[in-house]
């Protein structure tokens, strides 16, 4: 089994077909290879909606984890409920951090996302994902190469040193248009904030409409020297 400890660069190659650009082939391999020991960490953005639909074709009862920071948009929570209705067999878990928002404020001060956004992400996203990945051999992510400069070198299979895992990214060859074509073709439910200028959706304190479609993550942490929550650094 390919794991963090047995990692070999470019050991496995996948056919990049015209219809799915390799995504379905990668997912089939992932669930055949890891079974229940792979988890999809899903933000329920538009890429997540596509991946959920693809995963449901391969493993209808797959484990999907949403890192519930308690400060997501209401539209995000509503989208999750609609997805649960559409795919009732999926094992969708909302993973919360150890600290409530009140406990975090007492320990680190009010509005930590303003004073120290990296620490806020550590508490509310990174630590919960580490806990989620305990015992898992690999995890799936919806990263695409054209999302940002920091993601342009992402491969289908990646050695994840931060979480000491194998990170699987089936959508690396998908463009923004590819994602939306798939959603339209299959009439998939998605977060309505995407129609209001939010190509990338995170916590409501740290997410604004994007300034430009040339950088789909330009609406995240505006005014701060920060482009990633830390999950994919």
From TrEMBL:
EC number annotated for this UniProt entry: 1.8.4.10
Active site per UniProt: 229 (nucleophile)
Pfam families: PAPS_reduct
Ranges where the Phosphoadenosine phosphosulphate reductase domain occurs: 38-209
UniProt: [4Fe-4S] cluster binding residues: 120-121, 203, 206
Primary localization: cytoplasm
Reactions catalysed according to its record: [thioredoxin]-disulfide + sulfite + AMP + 2 H(+) = adenosine 5'-phosphosulfate + [thioredoxin]-dithiol
Keyword Membrane listed: no
Free-text comment on the cofactor: Binds 1 [4Fe-4S] cluster per subunit.
InterPro entries: APS_reductase, PAPS/APS_Rdtase, PAPS_reduct_dom, Rossmann-like_a/b/a_fold
Cofactor(s) the protein requires to work: [4Fe-4S] cluster
GO MF term (any one): phosphoadenylyl-sulfate reductase (thioredoxin) activity
EC supergroup of this enzyme: oxidoreductase
Similarity section: Belongs to the PAPS reductase family. CysH subfamily.
HAMAP family, sorted: CysH
Protein name: Adenosine 5'-phosphosulfate reductase
Origin species: Ureibacillus galli
């Amino acid at each position: 089994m390919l794991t963090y400890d047995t990692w070999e660069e470019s050991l496995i190659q996948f056919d990049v077909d015209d219809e799915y650009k390799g995504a379905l082939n990668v997912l089939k391999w992932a669930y055949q290879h890891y079974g229940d020991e792979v988890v999809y960490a899903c933000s329920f953005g538009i890429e997540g909606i596509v991946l959920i639909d693809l995963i449901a074709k391969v493993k209808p009862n797959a484990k999907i984890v949403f890192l519930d920071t308690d400060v997501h948009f209401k539209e995000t929570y509503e989208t999750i409920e609609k997805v649960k209705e559409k795919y009732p067999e999926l094992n969708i878990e909302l993973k919360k951090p150890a600290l409530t928002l009140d406990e975090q404020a007492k320990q680190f001060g009010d509005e930590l996302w303003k004073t120290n956004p990296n620490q806020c992400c550590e508490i509310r996203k990174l630590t919960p994902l580490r806990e989620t990945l305990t015992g898992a051999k690999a995890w799936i992510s919806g990263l695409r190469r054209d999302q940002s400069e920091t993601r342009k070198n992402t491969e289908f299979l990646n050695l994840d040193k931060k979480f000491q895992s194998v990170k699987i990214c089936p959508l690396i060859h998908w463009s923004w248009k590819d994602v939306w074509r798939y959603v339209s073709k299959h009439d998939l439910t998605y977060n309505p904030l995407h129609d209001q200028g939010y190509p990338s959706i995170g916590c409501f304190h740290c997410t604004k409409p994007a300034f430009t479609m040339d950088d789909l993550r330009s609406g995240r942490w505006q005014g701060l020297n920060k482009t990633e929550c830390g999950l994919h650094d």
